[in-house]
Amino acid sequence: MEKNGNNRKLRVCVATCNRADYSKLAPIMFGIKTEPEFFELDVVVLGSHLIDDYGNTYRMIEQDDFDINTRLHTIVRGEDEAAMVESVGLALVKLPDVLNRLKPDIMIVHGDRFDALALATSAALMNIRILHIEGGEVSGTIDDSIRHAITKLAHYHVCCTRSAEQHLISMCEDHDRILLAGCPSYDKLLSAKNKDYMSIIRMWLGDDVKCKDYIVALQHPVTTDIKHSIKMFELTLDALISFNKRTLVLFPNIDAGSKEMVRVMRKKGIEHHPNFRAVKHVPFDQFIQLVAHAGCMIGNSSCGVREVGAFGTPVINLGTRQIGRETGENVLHVRDADTQDKILQALHLQFGKQYPCSKIYGDGNAVPRILKFLKSIDLQEPLQKKFCFPPVKENISQDIDHILETLSALAVDLGGTNLRVAIVSMKGEIVKKYTQFNPKTYEERINLILQMCVEAAAEAVKLNCRILGVGIGGGIIHQHELIHGSSFCAAELGHLVVSLDGPDCSCGSHGCIEAYASGMALQREAKKLHDEDLLLVEGMSVPKDEAVGALHLIQAAKLGNAKAQSILRTAGTALGLGVVNILHTMNPSLVILSGVLASHYIHIVKDVIRQQALSSVQDVDVVVSDLVDPALLGAASMVLDYTTRRIH
After folding, report:
1. How many Å apart are CA 124 and CA 114, to the nearest integer?
2. Average pLDDT of 288-312?
3. Residues 62, 28: Cα–Cα separation, whole Å
4. pLDDT in tens, 417-450
5. 294 in any annotated domain
6. Which residue intervals define the domain UDP-N-acetylglucosamine 2-epimerase in the entry (predicted)?
C-alpha cells in the first residue's frame, strides 16, 4: 500500500455478466478476498446471471461464498439485435446509481460482451478507473469491436498472450499499464485434480458412459451472421446424431439468434434423444472435469480454443466466431460447411485423440501477478489516460524558419567522365554544383557519390536550403505528373535490354542501353581503340595527362574514323531500340533526349523508329533538350515532384 502511494485499502468492484466471464473473474475475486488488508471487494451481478432460462448462474457466485452487493436486471428479452442494444441501454440507465453508491477506486471488467461494454462506458464517464481482462485478443465477430472499444475506455490492461500484448501496444495503449499475466482461469485449470471425475461424468451423462467416450458441445450464435450460424448449428446436430456418441449439449448464450438455436434443438428432439443431455449450465469446477476427460469438444465457444487446450482434449472449432484466436494443435477448424459431411468427417478425425497440453493462454500464475499489479496502481496519478501514438510529421506551416527555407533536392548525375551533384531549388535553379572525376571502380564511385552528397547536404544548411531527398534517374511524365512506380524506381530506361548477348552492364546484366550508349560505355570503347592505336586520326591528339573519353570518340567520328563512327552508330541504334520499346509500351507524344551525347544520337534514333516502330507510333516527336544541365534538373524533379505533391 505504501509503494503505490495509497493510504487506504483499494476498493475494487468486480462486475460479472454471465457464466463464462465468471470463470475468469472468480480466481481474481478469490485472490482479492484472501488479502483483506489491501483490498475491499464489491461484487455486481447483471446480465444473463439473473435469468432462469440461462440457469440462474448467480447462485454459483453465492455458493462460492461471495457477497453480492448489487443485482441488476439488465437483459431485455427477445434474443435479437434490437434486444442486445436495448439491454446495453438499460444497463447504462441503472449503473450510475450503483456506482455512485459503491464509489469504487477501480472496476474490473472482463472480455467482450455487450454487457461489459455498458459497464466500461459507465465507469469511464463516471471517472472510475477500469482494469480490462483479456484485451488485445482477436476472435472474429462483433466481439472484436466490443473488446477493442473497451480497451480504449480502460486505464489498465491484463492480457493473456504475447500477441495480445503486442496488439494493445499497436493500439497505442501505454506499455507501462499493460500486464502480461496469462488467463486467470488457467490458475484453476492447471491445478484441477479430481480423482472422482467419473462421478461427475456419470451425473451429467449417465452411468454407462466411459471416460474419453463422450462429446461436449457448446455453440453460440454469430451476431454478424445469425442465419448462417443457425444453419451451422443444424448441421452440427445432424452430424452428432449420425456420429452416435453420448453428447452433453450446453444451451447457447443470450446473444441475438440464441432463441432460434434453441428452437432448432427442440425441433430435432435433442432434449429427449437417448444419446443427448441438454443443459443450461454446468458449474465451472465440474465443467473442467467434463472437458478434460471428453473424447472431443465441438462448437464455437472460446472455451474450446482457450481453456480446453490445457488438457490436450481434441476440439473441433466451427465457423468464424473464433477464427482469429491463437490455438494449440488440438484444435481442428471447420470454417464452413454446406452439409453435415465435413463436420462428421472432423468428428471421425478428432474423437478419442490425445494431444500435448497447451499453455498458450497461461502458466497457472496469473492471479498473483494481477494482485501485485493492482497494488501498484497509484490513485494519485492523473485519471486521464494517455495514448502512445506513433510520431507524426510535424506541422511546419507556421514556422518562420521553415517558411524562409528554400525547398530543394540533391541531384546526382553519373557521367562517363565526371560525377556531378547539385543542390536544385523548387524553381529549377541550380544553387550549387559539385563535380569530381569519375573513379575507375564501382566501390570508389559509390563512396565518392556518398561523400559528395554529404558535403552538399552540409553546405545546404549554410545556404538555408531544406533538402527533401536525393534523385537519380530518367523519367516518364503522364498527365503532367512524374511516374514514380511502386518502389520509386520507375523509368530505369538505361537498363532496358536491347540485346541478349550484348556487353556487360554495371547493373550486373548485359545488353542494356547503358552498356551501349552511356558516356561510360563510349569511354570504354574509346579506350579500347586508343590502346590499339585505332582512335586518333589526322588532326587529333590526346595529351598524355588527359584521360581518353567519349568526346574523343565523337571527335574521331567527325574526322572520318570509320571504327568510331561504327561504335556511335551501334550506340545510337541501341538507344533507338530502347525508345521503340518505350513507344510500344507507353505511346508517348514526345521523346526528349538530353545530355552531351543527345545531338549525336537523335538522327540515328529517328531512323530506328522509322524502321522498327509500329506505324501507329512513328509520328512521335523526338527532340533534344535545350535545358542547361538537364540530367541534374531531371534527377531533382524525381524528388521535388513527389515530396511537394504530398506536402501542399
Report:
1. 15
2. 93
3. 16
4. 688 999 998 888 899 999 998 887 878 888 999 9
5. yes
6. 37-375
What is the reported pLDDT for 646?
Answer: 47
Same domain, residue pair 440 and 538: no
Mention every residue, 6+ apart, whose C-beta is less than 8 A from residue 240: 215, 217, 247, 275, 276, 298, 347
Are 111 and 171 in the same domain? yes
Give the global pTM. Answer: 0.59
Residue by residue, DSSP assigns 461-509 as: HHTTEEEEEEE-S---EETTEE---TTS----GGG-B--TT--B-TTS-
**Count of structural domains, the chain:** 4
- pLDDT-derived band of residue 238, with 50, 70 and 90 as boundaries? very high
Residue 139 has pLDDT above 60, yes or no: yes
Cβ count within 10 A of residue 602? 18
* Cβ–Cβ under 8 Å, residues 240 and 295: no
Query: What CATH number is associated with residue 509?
Result: 3.30.420.40
Could you tell me which residues are annotated as the binding site?
Answer: 495, 505, 507, 512
Q: What is the mean pLDDT of the chain?
A: 89
Beta bridge partners of 246: 214
Cell numbers 480466481 correspond to what residue?
27
H-assigned helices in 250-294: 258-267, 284-292
CA dist., res. 363 & res. 513, Å (int): 64
Q: How far apart are CA 587 and CA 606, in angstroms?
A: 15
Crossing angle of helices 562-586/550-558, nearest 10°? 110
Residue found under cell 530506361: 493
- Across 393-412, average pLDDT: 67
d(CA 97, CA 94) in angstroms, rounded, equals 6
Q: What would the pLDDT profile of 14-48 be if each residue is shown by its tens digit?
A: 999 998 899 999 999 999 999 999 999 999 999 99
User: Where does 28-67 show beta strands of DSSP type E?
Assistant: 39-46
Annotated binding site for Zn(2+): 495, 505, 507, 512
Structural domain span for residue 174: 10-183+364-376
Report yes or no: 9 and 38 within 8 Å, Cβ to Cβ. yes
DSSP state of 438: P
Reported as a single tens digit per residue, the pLDDT across 446-472 is 899 999 999 999 999 888 888 888 888
| pLDDT more than 70, % of the chain | 94
- Which among 121, 142, 356 is positioned nearest to 255, based on CA atoms? 142
CATH number of the domain residue 175 falls in: 3.40.50.2000
